[in-house]
Amino acid sequence: MKQIFIFSDSKKDSISYFEREPAILVSMGRSDLSFLKKQEFAGFPAIYVLIGGDQRYVGQVAGQGIAKRLDQHFQKKSNDWVESVLFFARADGKMSKADTDYLERRLIHDFKEKSEYKLMNSTVGNNSYIDKLQKAKSDQLYNIVFEIIDEVANIDLFGVIEDEVKATLSENDQPFKITFENEVVTAKSARRLFINFVETLMADAKYSKTLKKMVIQGNPTYSLLLGTKVGTYSGKPNSVQLKNGIWLYATFSKKDVLRKIEFIAQQLGIKYDLKWKED
Question: What is the predicted pLDDT for the residue at 279?
Answer without folding.
Answer: 56
